[in-house]
Specification:
214 residues; alpha+beta; eight-stranded antiparallel beta sheet; two-stranded antiparallel sheet; 10 strands; globular
Length: 214
């Protein structure tokens, strides 16, 4: 069998990125000691924060590397997860927010192989836990979500700040969660078609073992 990932590239890869910091919202019903279910939230990151990109462009399996600012570095692993106190929305519903210290990347990568005129477009989702092929129509739905929530793009902390970019993202999600009853809920997937359940579909990719199941 032929391993395509080792085949030489003819056309250098031309990636288009969507980047986001993931948060999990845990919903607690009245009288419950633990969450009933979780919702994924994604806060967009500007492509402009990338400091450097190196295109190897030699094979399908080795395509491109990016370097991000120091505020993106999570040094303590799970201990870098930012957790909120319980937030009470009303008498019968509470929630908690956790923001995960990594970047989710969705990339559409176009390339062609030596000896072929065909341009191949792969839809790739990458987290520290893995790399996944995705369908083009799902990427389209995710782009709709990013477009509707562009105002929540995460700003970088000041260079002299001890905050990480994940701390900044966490504060944004917590503030929006506190005002959820009075605001547009698009950040939480609360639109007419729910972005075709795109956040629900991504949830197990972001955390293959949801803390609710542990």
């Amino acid at each position: 069998m032929y391993n395509e990932s080792t085949k030489k590239l003819d056309q250098p890869p031309s990636p288009t990125y969507l980047m986001a910091i993931p948060s999990k919202v845990y919903w607690l019903a009245e009288g419950a000691d633990s969450a009933d279910f979780s919702t994924l939230v994604l806060l967009p990151i500007s492509y402009d924060v990338i400091l450097e990109q190196v295109k190897t462009g030699e094979t399908v399996g080795v395509v491109e590397e990016s370097r991000l600012p120091a505020s993106f570095f999570a040094k303590l692993g799970a201990r870098d997860i930012a957790s909120s106190d319980e937030i009470e929305l009303d008498d019968d519903l509470r929630l908690m927010v956790e923001t995960l210290p990594f970047v989710l990347i969705v990339a559409t990568i176009e390339y062609s192989l030596v000896g072929s005129d065909e341009t191949i477009a792969d839809q790739i989702i990458t987290t520290p836990l893995g790399r996944y092929q995705w369908a083009e129509d799902r990427v389209t739905k995710l782009k709709e979500y990013f477009r509707d929530n562009a105002k929540f793009e995460v700003p970088l902390p000041d260079t002299d700040s001890d905050q990480s970019v994940y701390d900044v993202a966490h504060e944004i999600v917590v503030q929006e969660a506190k005002n959820l009853r009075n605001k547009n809920a698009s950040l939480f997937g609360g639109v007419k078609d729910g972005y075709d359940n795109i956040l629900k579909e991504l949830n197990p990719i972001v955390t293959p073992r949801d803390p609710l199941e542990l």
